[in-house]
Each structure stands twice: as C-alpha cells, then as structure tokens.
Amino acid sequence: MSPASRQAAVLGGNRIPFARRDGPYARASNQDMFTEVLDGLVSRFALQGQRLGEVSAGGVLKSSRDFNLTRECVLGSALDAATPAYDVQQACGTGLETTILVANKIALGQIEVGVAGGFDTTSDAPIEVNDDLRRVLLDLNRARSLQQRLALLPRLRPGQVVPRIPRNEEPRTGLSMGEHQAISTRRWGIGRTEQDEWAVGSHRKLAAAYDAGFFDDLITPYLGLGRDQNLRPDSTVEKLAKLKPVFGLDGPSPSMTAANSTPLTDGAAAVLLASDEWADERKLPVLAHIVDAETGGVDFVHGEDDLLGAPLYAVPRLLDRNGLSLQDFDFYEIHEAFASQVLMTLKAWQDPDFCAERLGRDEPLGAIDPERINVNGSSLAAGHPFGATGGRIVATLATLLDGRGFGRGLISICAAGGQGVCAILEKRE
Amino acid sequence: MTPGDRYQALTNSPLGSITSRIGLPTPPMLERHRPGMPVARGPVALGGAHGGRLEEAAARVLRSLEAAIVTGDASDSPRPAALVFDASGIDDPARLRALYEFFHPRIRGLASNGRVVVLAAVPAEAETAAGAVAQRAIEGFTRSVAKEIGAKGSTAQLVRVAVGGEDAIESTLRFLLSARSAYVDGQAIEIGPAGEDDVVVPGDWERPLAGRVAAVTGAARGIGASIAEVLARDGAELISIDVPAAGGDLSDAANAIGATALQLDITAPDAGSRLADHVAERHGKLDVLVHNAGITRDKTLGRMEPEQWDSVIDVNLASQLRLNQPLLERELLGGGGRIVSVSSVSGIAGNRGQANYATSKAGVIGMVRAFAAELGERGTTINAVAPGFIETRMTAAMPIGVREAGRRTNSLLQGGQPVDVAEPVAWLASPASAGVNGNVIRVCGQALIGA
Lengths: 429, 451
Prior knowledge:
A: alpha+beta; Peroxisomal Thiolase, Chain A, domain 1; B: alpha/beta; Rossmann fold; 15 helices; 13 strands; 38% helix; globular
C-alpha cells in the first residue's frame, strides 16, 4: 500500500533544555515540565486559547496518579481546555510514536492539528511500596471484620518498609539496558576509541548548533537552564579515554563508559503537527512532512537479537515500502542511547552476513556518509529523558531539512523491550 | 498606587495628614486608563487667542469625544478636568497676555489629575521675528504651569502644530487629555503637516491598532512586557521578542496577551534578516516596531571594562539600526509604518556611572533625528520615548537614597509605572499619529534633571 495521500506537516517544536538527574529539575514533576513545554509551543505559534485536534505524549517513569498526565498538562496550559489528550508509553520510542499517531490522524483527515511529545524525570521518579507490603495492604482493604484485620498483622515484616524504586532493567532478563548493550558491543566488535570519538563528536556538534542559534526557536529555557546540562563542548577523546568502564565488566576489555552512554536525564519536548491547509490559513511555514513510519520489535529474550537491535529490521522494511535505498537521505538521526548502539547499527547494515541471513537481502544496505548523521549532535551530548527524545529529534530534523530547503531525513530510535521506532521526513521544494 | 512606593501609600492613608502637616510632600495618586474610561474625564474649558488656526480643530476633537465644552466665563463654569488653549494666533510678545487671561482665572479650579494643553505654532514657521519669539516663549509658560499643578496629579503640555497639521491633532489631543498620559508632563510635542491620506482615523478609538502587526523587543518583562500588553489591548497582533535566555518569561508574557514569542538575540549579525524573515513568513508585514530592549552595565568611565562599553552600545543602539535596515529595505515596514524607540532621560541629561548607557540612549535620539525626514517621505514615522524614573525590578534594587531621590525629584513626586511608558508608545504607534514624527517624548513626570 502506498503512503497516505495527505502527509502531516511538522511546523515546529519546543523543548526545555535537558538536565542531569538531581540537577536543576530535581523538584520538577513530569507535569511541570510538559506544561512548560506546551506553553512555550503555544507562545511560539500564538496558539493561545485554540482548540487543537489532540495532544499525545507520554513518559516512561510515571506515578500511578499520573494516569491522565498529558490531559492534565493541557488543562494547565494556555490551550483551549476543549483540546483532548492521551498518554502513550513505548519506552524510548514514546516521543516518536506519539508523533506518528498524531501525524496519522492528520493524514486521515480526522484532525487538522495536534501536538506530540513526551517527558521523563529520573529525579522525581515514583517510588512504590514494597510488593509484599502492597499485598498485605490490599488484603487489609478487603478484610471485612476486625478479626480478619488482626489476622493480617503477623504478615507485616520490617523488610517491607524498603520501597520499590524503578530501575532501568529488562523485566524478562533482569539485565540493565547498559548490560544488554555491553553484550551487543562485544558481539559486534565495537571498540572503545570509536565509541569515545562518536561521543566527542556529538558534544562538538551540539555545541556548534547552539552557538549558531539553531535552537533559538526550538528551546525555551527552564529553571535557570539555557542549554542542555550534559553538554561538554570541550570534551576530547583523551579526556574520555581516562574514564573507567561501567558496563560489561564481567567480560574481556569492557568499553562502555559514562561518557559514551547517555546519562539519566530530566526533560520534556513537543512538536506541532498540522495539515498544510491548517498551516496555510495561519501563515505558519511547513518545516517538513512526515512521509512514513515503521515500528518494530525483536526477540532479544530467546533469539540471537540485540535488545536495541529492532531498528536494524524496521528501517529496511520502511525503505522497501518507500522504494528508497539507505543512501537516499540528506540527514540521518540515529538516537544515541549508547555510542555503540549507533556504531553497531551502521556496522550491521554493511555486514553481508547479517543482511543476508537476518534481513534476507542479496546485498547489504551499505554505508552511510558519517557527515550526514546526527549533524547537530544527539542524545550523548543532549541527554536522553526517555519520552522526550523523539520530540527533540523530530523538531531537530525538520528544522535541518527546512534550513537546507529540500531533502529527506531518516529517524531511527531504539527502545527498551527490544523495540525500535523509525520514520522518514521530507522537505519538498 | 505604585507597588513599591510605601511612602506614597502612607501619605494617601489617614496618617497622611501628619506628613503633610510637617511639610513633607504628598505624592498624588495618578489615574491610569482603563478600557471604557472616557478620554475627557469631565468638562473641558476651551479658549484661544485671536487669529489662531487650531481652536476649531480642537473643538471638533472635543465634540467627537462627546466632552462637555465650556467656553464662557471662568466663574460660572463647573470645575474643569482639562484646559485647552489655542495660542497659535499669538504673533507678538505683548499678546502672550492671552495665556495669562485664559489660565489665571481657571488654573486653580482645575480638577485633580487634570490636563492643560496649549496648542501653538512652530516658531520657525512664524512670519515675523516677533511671532517666532512669542511662540518660543510659550514653552516656558507650559513648563511652569506643569510644575504648579503636578502635586495634584495634573499635567501641562505644549503641542506645536505645523501649518498643514491642523487635521492631524486628534490622536495627540486624545492621548494628552486622557489618563493614558499620566506620567508625561511638561513636554513640547510637534505635529508636522499630515493630510487626510496619512492620518488613518480608527473605527474604534479603544482599538486603534486593530489589524496592525507590532513587534516589541525586550518584551519578556518590565517596560517591554507592558508595551506589548498595551499594544495588544489596543488591538495589535503582537510579536514579542527577547533573548533566548529570557525565553521562559517571554513565553509567559506572550501567552498572557495572545502574542507570538520570538526568541532572538538582537546583537547577532543576522538578527535583522531573521526578524524580517519571521515577519514575512508569519505576518506578511510589520506596522509597528518598538525598540525597547536595553541593558545597563554601570561603572564610572575609569573603571569600565571594554566589554561593558561594547555590550551596552551594541544592545541599546547598534542593534536598532541592524533590525531596521532589512525591514525597511524589504519594505516589510512600509507606508504607515511606525518605529518607536525607547531612549532615556540619562541619554538627555547624562548620568554619573552611565557613560556607556547615556551614550547609547543619546544615540537613539540621534537615530530618530537622522531618519525622521527620510522615513516621513514614505509615510513612516520614527519617534522615541525617554523614560525617567520608572518602577521596575531594576529600580527596586537601588539603594534607598538614590531610589527616593529618583522618585521625588519630579513634578508628580513619584516614579512612573511601566504602563506609563507603554501608553505613549501606543499613541506614537497609532495609525492616527501620522503627523507625529521625529519627536522625543520624555516620560518622567517632568523630572528636574535634563533639558
């Protein structure tokens, strides 16, 4: 089937600078951050009091009380309260998945305009009661008599006061994302130096983009932060070489450090999507269009696949459907969960065995011009508040395409649970 | 009441009788415009010296205001809210007595928050030397009257109307008579020739900027935010501009008034083209550009670092030229356009420790003078407002001695509010103010310092 005849337009974006965990946003909630981002987007496009088709956003670390968080953010924003909203959660792919959902509704003509985005706080994280204690408390709630209640008392144990803190680990393997990626790094033979070089490049490019004013209309400062707190413009391969590895320590020559892995980060981001007609009526320039998207998954639990390897499969499917080769793009945005994830992705697409055996292709997808990848830096420098990354990337790529005047961009975002979300954006002349 | 001015609050409370009995000044409570408030807040006494050419035009304006016009004897008329006198017919020093004869019996009956407006000719246009002398003399009269009536919150202004500008006085007369001009005092305003083609009479004087696009720099807070708010209230579609670092406040301020927020570093080399692109893409044109962004880096000259000099000149002055140029070249700010710059009393009088700031603000006046003629030919005007002591976060942080001196050393015995700067900006920005070009209007309550 061909892509939809009407394509959603990206009109712009807004995010707050990303902060390191327990940094300036330590006391800001997801709701605080995303409301701020919405209000910044509203003021950038003069959307005050307007009813939009929908707002879709989400985050990974959420309290149960935040069941309707995005809607709460809309109610607290300068938008018309008649704007509906819903939450989505697809790990690190959340912000791109919401973009796809809103873009699809626009393409189908169900709505004319919407906002997509995401947020995450690793500082203001929800803490749940211990599972044992939770069961006792629920039983207590169900007890009908004093006798039944008293009978539950012996089940209370001192150890139950220890709360359950959310951890960055895969439920089915018990391994953290970093440990999973350490396995992949070793499997794909990704070296320490190339990872450090990639990380340094990300910082250098992001800093240059800030200096050029690229983010002037993409970011609104928040709580005293004007740039991403994680950004180190002066980082060098020599400095990074001194860091001790933090993942894969049980195997030979571990190579993943705090610098070539993304740090835990707080932040929020959003993009404004609309039909061309809606944009024209308001004289809002179209930065780029959402052409198509593909979300994939892999069996990392039982199979041979990498936890963060789903984009290796999703991107070729997306290319085939659109009749494109991997080289047909002017910009590539490959989310830098870890430097080694990007390097592994590039390597896999050039690997004849992988492409033949796993992707069933006669020829490898081939190499990509490194000068076109993450040209204004990515998550290693900016940080990666899980749900917010998709919005950051879509707005960045659309702005890059608009600046070039025409062209095509590819987004690839790996996500926990063995998933990957990918999309094609295009700027037509 | 000024939020930070506790002394004013005290003197206007029951305890105020004590301060006035021991001879301390009593700052009056200035009336400010609220939507729906009439321009003339009571009867207006109108008079003129024989041979004047402005009394009839003034009467037309007053009639359109539905103001009660009092023309008879002073003794039997009700207490007037404003005294308007056409002095354009005075062509000899001896005839200046007409001012005495009109104002002497009426001035003490002027209501609180009253207005005195003397309409006059442009001295250089006088046919005789005696006429020019007499017309110039009137300025001493209005400035003195302002000082006499300031303690009651009343103001006096001189409006010089060039030949051919008679039909262009309405927006100015409305502004001066209304509560919008609360902190403008003792000024001499000049209205040049402007025909019916230039002066656009608004359908609704409460929204004279309806359908107009206005951009304000430094709009995140303080005076700039207030200017944006007042222009939006008057009907304009607003582009609120500030540096990216102030984006959070800018966004809040823009959302409060339905404006578009534009984060732009006006000192960037491409700032002008970025603004022009934004205007072209998003709004198609710009009708009003308000240069308000400004910084202070105060130091006595001997201790001033080069960066402190450079940054102040760049932000306060050079950036204004940089923003104007592409907008004018690309004719995005075209016929009927309005440029209003925020200068400062420091730029007129100079100020210790502000050599950089005063230079930049005097330069703003220079810009107004340099561009007025050229822009006037294409129907665009350029004017400046020069605020004196305005109550902002900056003045709240001053040492109390300096702050109190700043507040009390003017005819109205108080500091102004940001809105007091915003209102004259809106008047200059009005499509009906086509005749007002090349003016520098002080907003200082007639401060003692400066010319």
